[in-house]
Amino acid sequence: MSQTDSNQKPTTIVIFGASGDLTHRKLIPALYNNFKKERLSDKLRIVGFARRPWSDNDFRTRLEEAIKEFAPDSFDSDTWASFTPVLSYFQGDLGVAEDYQRLDASLREREEDPANRLYYLATSPNFYAPAANYLHEAGMTSQAEGWRNIIIEKPFGHDLESAQALNEEVHRAFGENQIYRIDHYLGKETAQNIIFFRFANAIFEPVWNRRYVENVQLTVAESVDVGHRAGYYDQSGVLRDMFQNHLLQLLALIAMEPPASLKADAIRNEKAKVLGAIRPIALRDTVRAQYRGYGETEQVAPDSQTPTYAALRLYIDNWRWKGVPFYLRSGKALDRKASEIVIQFLAPPDVMFNLAEDECFTPNTLSICVQPDEGIHLKFETKVPDSARESRSVDMEFHYRDSFKGQALPDAYERLILDALKGDPSLFARSDEIELAWQLIDPILQGWESAAEAPPLAHYEPGSWGPAEADRLLARADHLWRVGCGHHEES
């Protein structure tokens, strides 16, 4: 029986780490909004698991405060009153095997009839493997009475070896089809729309290849600095924090071949093929940098070499993309918050326009804006009125807020949790994708740690677009960074 067929049964969601920030900021608001939209089964239960000595009412009161703080526009007192009976609390310790056995007994009392279960590890990564093991030892992974799935948050290891070890440990308790590795970027509406944009519109796919594309750029820029995450971030750095997961997942969606269907394995097979076709990245094609003042941050060593910015150039050695450079960049304390993908097309022959030697057309670009101003922009050339041959770039744009007035974009967690409940892992990373991504990132991290091979650690001013070295990386091929989505391009 498929998970979809079995969803008529009662379902219990157990949130491990229920007293934490993720639960309050994202998970409960997402579940509450799905409940409000009547997308959850009326047989659903949500159980929080944490060490704090709370009662059910304590738990509900704190979650109500969280909804009012983090999702104030969606809070409705009547809806919340209907939602609270779904919520309950269990006091337990993630590191104590007996507490999982007690939890199972408590769940069976609450469930009355055999139920499906979704376990959400909203915990520190060091609990992922032990929690999966304790769940298995307690008999809580057996699917004899209903499906048993688990959601794991990033980071999925800190290098290839740890990622492989984590996959091995979790696979001892759960089959791959039960594991949902969540990357919230893939739950964003614009990221989901990439497949529809490419394959449901016949005008784009014919030019989505090396014959027409000059280069592809992926930017995930953050305007905030490391803030309260400094202790974690100084051990991680930008490559582990953003490239191994978000950026490479977005790249796979942009570059993959058409899947045979929209089934999860068909999509994830094509993504894995793209990641497997990426040429090993040369250190000369990398830039690492740190914003000025980072070393003065609390919990950061004054002489820290941790990069808060990185830029990479890579190539996908397959028929579609051979020779086309893909540029990836991400950083903290940059000019603005922006996540976007820019496809720059080849310039047309200019002979018929009789351009001067120092003149050229601005290239056509297609910008897919993942956040914050979700939409798609196509930039093309047009003649300036009342001129002989002067041209100007103009923008053809689509914005979700304009085309779908009154329909708010859901938070990524709303879609992802709903998909996990339905048994659809299309937007979740598979174990081979995780390991292929680490195979690309590991050699860069190792090279940066070698003083003999590493490019120097550059610095940049907070509020800028990053170091000059990143501009020079593109200038070597006469390219420049582009910010579409209605913003002016960088010079």
Written account of the structure:
The chain is α/β, with parallel strands linked by helices. Helices cover 35% and strands 20% of the residues. It has helices at residues 3-6, 21-36, 56-70, 77-83, 97-111, 128-137, 160-173, 189-199, 230-236, 238-255, 264-277, 400-403, 412-422, 431-449, 468-475, and strands at residues 11-16, 44-50, 87-91, 116-121, 148-153, 179-182, 213-221, 286-291, 309-315, 325-331, 338-345, 365-371, 375-383, 391-399, 458-460. The protein has a 9-stranded mixed β-sheet with strand order 14-13-12-11-7-10-9-8-15, with helices on both faces. It has a 6-stranded parallel β-sheet with strand order 3-2-1-4-5-6, sandwiched between helices. Strand 1, helix 2 and strand 2 form a beta-alpha-beta unit. Helix 10 crosses helix 14. The model has no long low-confidence stretch (mean pLDDT 89).
Strand content: 15-25%
Distance linking N and C termini: 57 Å
| Sheet/helix structural class | alpha/beta
**Overall number of strands:** 15
Overall 3D form: globular
Round the mean pLDDT to the nearest integer and report it. 89
Provide key terms for this protein.
single chain, 491 residues, alpha/beta, 6-stranded parallel β-sheet, 20% strand
Helices and strands, with pairings:
Blueprint: H1 3-6, E1 11-16, H2 21-36, E2 44-50, H3 56-70, H4 77-83, E3 87-91, H5 97-111, E4 116-121, H6 128-137, E5 148-153, H7 160-173, E6 179-182, H8 189-199, E7 213-221, H9 230-236, H10 238-255, H11 264-277, E8 286-291, E9 309-315, E10 325-331, E11 338-345, E12 365-371, E13 375-383, E14 391-399, H12 400-403, H13 412-422, H14 431-449, E15 458-460, H15 468-475
Parallel strand pairs: 1-2, 1-4, 2-3, 4-5, 5-6, 7-10, 8-15
Antiparallel strand pairs: 7-11, 8-9, 9-10, 11-12, 12-13, 13-14
